[in-house]
């Protein structure tokens, strides 16, 4: 579905006491504050700069958004260390024209809530116009949201829910798009077929888990989750029907005592595959969907061609193995989806889904925010309020 608008023009942006001209439709570039990395590594590779290149509209269906808040996810920590670098390089440069390392300086951050500043030629005003408050999940191969501005395809952007602040809104899009891809696109669930289905979420207190709980409960499903005891109050507050404490012993033991499930969503990985598929109803179309897959690790380790071949062999062999037992084995992948965010925005404004923000950081505290995410054991999302960066130093 195309989202189209009108001719871009030169605009004056006022930010605090700063005033600058920019034109996103040609090669004139200005600079902006951002957190970047110049190489892959640990948290010390993060660098604040006031001289990051201003994003330019290169395609007529793109929009430039001023970022008000950015949500952080585990993938940001992984990408900081180089995870998925080979696949992302292919997505950015399919013909392999640029030299290795051309992605630097790289801006991390997959979640964004902000205001549209400029629209490309093909973005229709029926969908978006300058000044609209929007949210988006940014694809990992694009420059991220830990910056004052970002450029996105209009198909990746959606109107922000009216009832959420930018801080709250920035906690939702990436986990929402990931959960939607896993549960709807891969798992086959929707608002019309979810009633009374039994769903198990392994790892229910993180970003994807807390969002999935709310969406599934809004659609009438029976939801069981695993989490630690100190997260039980959070997930029960989101409407969970049954909680299993993974700190009390081997989690598969109490789960096996329960009625079988129609779908298992695995946010944990590890050895869960060895027992989780046994919790599904056999020969009923039940699915195990895992978000912890070796796809990007394979391409990083073996290269694009061999990595994709290895991935195909792995998923096909596992799918056939479990199909013989009457259950379906699937991998879930993040996919940017502005249309899904449209539906989710309506659910948020209807009071069916709320943002779960665990902690808020300022723009100058991005390294601390990254360390928070890196420690794991999330109880919702970590969000950064984006400012002009005057309180940081180059």
What features would you describe in this structure?
The protein is of the alpha/beta class and 394 residues long. The chain has two domains: 171 residues, Medium-chain alcohol dehydrogenases, catalytic domain (Quinone Oxidoreductase, Chain A, domain 1, Alpha-Beta Complex); 145 residues, Rossmann fold. Helices cover 28% and strands 24% of the residues. It is built from twelve helices and 17 strands. Strand 16, helix 12 and strand 17 form a beta-alpha-beta unit. Helix 4 crosses helix 5 and helix 9 packs antiparallel against helix 10.
Mean pLDDT: 89
Shape: globular
Number of strands: 17
| CATH top level assignment of the largest domain | Alpha Beta
**CATH structural fold name of the largest domain:** Quinone Oxidoreductase, Chain A, domain 1
Q: From N to C, what is the helix and strand string?
A: EEEEEHHEEEEHHEHEHEHEHEHHEHEHE
Query: What proportion of the residues form beta strands (DSSP E)?
Result: 15-25%
How large is the radius of gyration?
Answer: 21 Å
Give a quick account of the main beta sheet: strands, pairing sense, barrel closure. Answer: 7 strands, mixed
Give the proportion of residues in helices: 25-40%
What oligomerization state is this entry in? single chain
Number of domains: 2
Structural class: alpha/beta
CATH architecture tag of the largest domain: Alpha-Beta Complex
Pathway: Cofactor biosynthesis; ubiquinone biosynthesis
Subcellular location: Mitochondrion matrix; Mitochondrion outer membrane
Family: Belongs to the zinc-containing alcohol dehydrogenase family. Quinone oxidoreductase subfamily.
Protein name: NAD(P)H oxidoreductase RTN4IP1, mitochondrial
């Amino acid at each position: 579905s195309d989202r189209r608008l009108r001719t871009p023009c030169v605009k004056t942006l006022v930010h605090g006491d700063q005033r600058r001209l920019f034109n996103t439709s040609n090669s004139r570039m200005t600079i902006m504050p951002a957190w970047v990395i110049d190489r892959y590594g640990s948290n010390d590779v993060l660098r604040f700069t006031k001289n990051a290149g201003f994003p330019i509209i290169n395609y007529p269906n793109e929009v430039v958004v001023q970022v008000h808040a950015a949500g952080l996810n585990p993938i940001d920590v992984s990408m900081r260390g180089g995870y998925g670098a080979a696949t992302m390089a292919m997505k950015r440069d399919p013909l392999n024209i640029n030299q290795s390392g051309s992605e630097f300086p790289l801006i991390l951050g997959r979640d964004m809530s902000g205001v549209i500043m400029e629209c490309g030629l093909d973005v229709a005003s029926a969908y978006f116009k300058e000044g609209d408050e929007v949210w988006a999940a940014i694809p990992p191969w694009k420059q991220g949201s830990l910056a004052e501005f970002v450029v996105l395809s209009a198909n990746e952007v959606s109107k922000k829910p009216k009832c959420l602040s930018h801080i709250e809104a920035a906690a939702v899009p990436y986990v929402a798009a990931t959960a939607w891809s896993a549960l709807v696109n891969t798992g086959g669930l929707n608002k019309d077929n979810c009633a009374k289905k039994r769903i198990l979420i392994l790892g229910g207190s993180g970003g994807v888990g807390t969002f999935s709980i709310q969406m599934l409960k809004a659609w009438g499903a029976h939801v069981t989750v695993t989490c630690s005891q100190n997260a039980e109050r959070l997930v029960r507050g989101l409407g969970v029907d049954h909680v299993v404490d993974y700190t009390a012993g081997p989690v598969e033991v109490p789960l096996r005592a329960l009625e079988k499930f129609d779908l298992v969503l695995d946010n944990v990985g590890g050895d869960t595959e060895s027992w989780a598929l046994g919790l599904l109803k056999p020969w009923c179309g039940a699915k195990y969907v895992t978000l912890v897959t070796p796809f990007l690790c394979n391409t990083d380790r073996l290269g694009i061609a061999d990595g994709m071949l290895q991935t195909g062999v792995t998923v096909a062999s596992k799918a056939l193995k479990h199909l013989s037992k009457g259950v379906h084995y699937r991998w879930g992948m993040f996919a940017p989806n502005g249309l899904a965010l449209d539906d989710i925005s309506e659910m948020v404004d209807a009071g069916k889904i709320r943002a779960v923000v665990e902690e808020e950081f300022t723009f100058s505290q991005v390294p601390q925010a990254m360390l928070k995410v890196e420690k794991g054991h999330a109880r919702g999302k970590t969000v950064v309020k984006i400012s002009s960066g005057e309180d940081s130093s180059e």
